[in-house]
């Protein structure tokens, strides 16, 4: 993304009254650190120049960690940037899918980046992708992550979405197997003694169970998440809608930062109106059909589209593994006597 595009993004996002007092800006997808620290320094300066005084902006980067060095950590420290490391666990699990063009895995270099963060005492969290071979190693996975002292651990699943047309989980894993994996993960987390594990998926699930109100689902509410492509194309709802193949992707581009006068313009775009109608229909069907609706809020549009071919769909493999299984296992653990978990309602 050019700095001129960054300036246009800043102009639009600080457009009142759509914005309240807090904003998270996260660079992710592809590998954000392939651009140099100087680029982000300038980009953040541009954003900060346009930021209203009563709006707090939190910056974040999701990276594979392989390029982290002291220059990066200087920038992270200067701008208090939240760092997420994409690490799928021990070497064999990670290198199975995260390879360079020459076929070698990136695990070793990711660990070198993590070691730099640790040496400087800079906090980071992990996001890992769970594939079929991970399922028998839930306990080992938690021990492995915890050994690095992360602030939190998030477990994504290998999804069938956008350009990822294959999922080992969907092919080889039953709901029972996945629930056993979650149980192993939670038991391992509970046994970490004086090193409490902050497990994103457990926190989210328990927070929605305790709150007793329908899940506020950012992926189905317009402009909760504003997703901007490298060229300034604007989308909203699931971020991965921007990763769809052309021409499907075109359906979810509702404007461009270089052409919109204000952010609200996208709400009158025909493609937005059509997508929002279909997504809302899907949410309404979820609400009437699914007993997990209040813990889910109607799922992820991109997964409905990728798995079922329609934004109006309801149940997907994605929601079985990321919502239903977690709710059921968390309820079992929460109801167990002498459980050793704590839940923070703020993540
Ligand atoms: S769990 Fe699945 S079917 Fe139920 S509300 Fe969520 S997306 Fe819809």
TrEMBL record:
The keyword S-adenosyl-L-methionine applies. InterPro entries: Aldolase_TIM (IPR013785), rSAM (IPR007197), rSAM_sf (IPR058240), Sulphatase_maturase_rSAM (IPR023867). Coiled coil: none annotated. GO terms for molecular function: iron-sulfur cluster binding; metal ion binding; oxidoreductase activity. It comes from the Bacteria. Its cofactor is [4Fe-4S] cluster. CDD domains: Radical_SAM. Residues 25-129 form the Radical SAM core domain. Keywords: Iron, Iron-sulfur, Metal-binding, S-adenosyl-L-methionine. The keyword Lipid metabolism does not apply. This is Radical SAM core domain-containing protein.
